[in-house]
Amino acid sequence: MRDAALPIDDRGLAYGDGLFETVLVRDGQPLLWDHHMARLEMGIDRLALPWPDFEAFHALPAQCGPGLRVLKLMLTRGSGGRGYRPPEAPDLRWRWTDSPFEPSPGRWLEGVAVRCCELRLGIQPRLAGIKHLARLENVLARQECQHDSIAEGLLCDSQGHLVEATAMNLVWRREGRLETPLLDRCGVSGTLLSALDEIVEFDWVRVGLDTLLAADAAWLINSVQGVWPIRRLDDAAGVCLKQWPLESNDTFRHAAHRLLGYPLNLGD
Q1: DSSP letters along 23-87, please?
Q2: Domains present along the chain, CATH in parentheses
Q3: For the chain, which residues score pLDDT lower than 70?
């Protein structure tokens, strides 16, 4: 159902008991659709939700408006149960909407400033990777980075290991190798990261901030915004920890933007 109100007893509204996907759609054609559906299937399995009508989902991108759009699809366990105890036979509820989208080419061109967040992500492997509705950690972390000059907040887990940004994945290059944090204990497995993993060689690592500071380039990525080179990294108090020069021939960004249909050359 398109953009209809949820009843107050909906479990997604009450407990975050559900999943969502945000998909970039260009003139009715979804980008990285198979990766979005694969992550959605993983989330359905992890939360033990009823199996939805995927054929109905496959028809949604064509119903989006013209041009560049973002389709948001949300699934909840529906209503019922007693408190946190879910109903034995839940009735899956889903909603969707789409909205026009304009990327931020200035951030592709000029890079971004990022701040380390004080908040630490809790470790919960059962929820790791999936895009569940209970995003309060990300909300609180993003609240730490309210100034427009800070594009994103960088998150570690409760043991001090790098995980992600509040709404993007993190990649860096160190000693000629691309590295990205392991996402087996917390964090979201981004669909752009998953697609790149099929064509670019990554080392998946569990490391602290010191490893990132030893990198010679770093990026934030997701399937809607594309790739933002990190120009500056601050600590939680706003003190600069590292600055990276921008690369005129950013081959990593080129590889990602080919997947999304975004311009490859800076300034295009």
Answers
A1: EEEETTEESSHHHHHHHHHHHHHHHTPPP--HHHHHTSGGGS-SSEEEEEEEEE--S-SBTTBPP
A2: 11-100 (3.30.470.10), 105-260 (3.20.10.10)
A3: 1, 266-268
